[in-house]
Specification:
By secondary structure, this protein is α+β, with helices and mostly antiparallel strands. It has one domain (2-272). Helices cover 39% and strands 11% of the residues. It is built from 15 helices and ten strands. It has helices at 2-10, 27-35, 43-47, 55-58, 81-89, 106-125, 141-147, 194-198, 216-222, 244-247, 274-278, 282-288, 298-316, 320-331, 337-352, and strands at residues 15-19, 64-71, 96-97, 130-133, 152-153, 159-160, 168-175, 204-206, 209-210, 238-240. The strands form four sheets. The chain has a four-stranded antiparallel β-sheet with strand order 1-2-7-4, sandwiched between helices. Strands 3-10 form a two-stranded parallel ribbon. The protein has a two-stranded antiparallel ribbon with strand order 5-6. A hairpin with a 5-residue loop joins strand 5 (152-153) and strand 6. The model has no long low-confidence stretch (mean pLDDT 95).
Length: 356
């Protein structure tokens, strides 16, 4: 394990562990979560069934899972970053984009480096069966990470570490080699309920239970249709993801800065305003989000999210330029029927907030 840890560190990973593949004790919880419909429109969660909790069914021959942590907090973020992010949320005309999404798409970064780690292991022990994942397949990432000692599942369902809070990505290598397993971490949340209480939409419905249908990250990223009317006013200026439950978590005073430049903040996403982002056309959106996780939601959802945030800003006070920009958009000829209808409904809602 010593050599494996050294290779991982050189590749930018902060910590690795090794887990057993018997996750049978996690199956009842997964089934109950699906039965309550908490996965929303993420139909792939249900279609994969228990394969998510059975690594050897997903990749036949798997007997161990190497888990890896990679910190993403941008190196430029100063001390006191949580308070600064909360201040951003109090400024209605400013756009709030999740910290993890301000740089390069983590899928691309982790997958390539996990494969390099597997190649180095193969160079030491000989060829072996393996497959790498990072939020890209039916994998119980947090469950595997907690069982391998990378941290514990917080009440917001994210993995928490005493060394790094929760500002990190997880990746896995399924292997057919019986590597020695690492010991799990105990839970250190105690009676703290800060994450549950701060959630704007009250999506954390119980300890380690999230109703994705109410989660702002789900609504702005995974959800394809109209955002429910009752939830729009609660979303504030969030336009891509939500970090509130992480910002309030005491453990994130230990959050580690990223060692890779990939997660540095892009200039276009450094202190962006709602009006500035709304003025992007689709070509600008595609150019400025190239290689970014934001690009995968598409231009229509991006505009939908911005319209909701602008509506909340208009309700909070007079923003003449914002109102004018929305009205001008409605006057333009539609370019795509379905996408235009989706955005138009949210723009109309936003303008209706002026009189509220």
């Amino acid at each position: 394990m010593g050599a494996l840890r050294q290779w991982a560190s050189t590749l930018g990973f902060s910590q690795i562990g090794v887990a057993h593949v018997d996750l049978s004790s996690a199956e009842p919880g997964l089934l109950a979560w699906l039965a309550r419909g908490f996965h929303g429109e993420m139909h792939y969660m249900a279609s994969h069934g228990l394969k998510r909790a059975r690594p050897a069914e997903l990749v036949p021959g798997t007997v161990r899972v190497i888990t890896a942590r990679m910190d993403y907090l941008p190196a430029s973020v100063p001390p006191g970053w949580q308070a600064m992010e909360f201040d951003r949320l109090k400024q209605p005309d400013v756009a709030a984009v999740s910290l993890y999404a301000r740089g390069r798409d983590y899928h691309k970064v982790l997958r390539a480096r996990l494969q390099k780690l597997a190649d180095q292991l193969a160079g030491a022990i000989g060829p072996f069966g393996h497959r790498v994942f990072t939020d890209s397949a039916p994998v119980l990432e947090v469950e595997l990470a907690s069982r391998s000692g990378l941290g514990w599942r917080g009440k917001h369902t994210l993995l928490l570490s005493r060394e790094a809070g929760s500002t990190f990505f997880l990746g896995e290598i399924y292997v057919d080699v019986p590597l020695p397993v690492t010991e799990p971490e105990s839970v250190h949340c105690g009676s703290c309920r800060a994450c549950m209480e701060v959630c704007p939409t009250q999506a954390i419905v119980g300890e380690r239970q999230v109703d994705a249908r109410r989660c702002i990250s789900y609504l702005t990223i995974e959800h394809a249709g109209p955002i429910p009317l009752a939830l729009r006013p609660l979303m504030g200026n969030h336009v891509y993801g939500c970090d509130d439950c992480q910002l309030v978590c005491p453990w994130n005073k230990f959050a580690q800065r990223a060692s890779l430049p990939d997660f540095d903040v892009r200039p276009a996403l450094d202190q962006p305003t709602l009006l500035g982002l709304w003025r992007w056309d689709e070509a600008t959106f595609l150019r400025l989000t190239e290689g970014s996780p934001i690009r995968r939601i598409g231009f229509a959802r991006w505009q939908r999210n911005l319209a909701v945030a602008m509506g909340n800003a208009l309700r909070a006070g007079e923003h003449a330029a914002m109102r004018e920009a929305l009205q001008q958009w409605l006057a333009l000829p539609p370019l795509n029927g379905d996408d235009h209808a989706l955005v138009a409904e949210h723009v109309q809602w936003a303008l209706a907030q002026i009189s509220r």
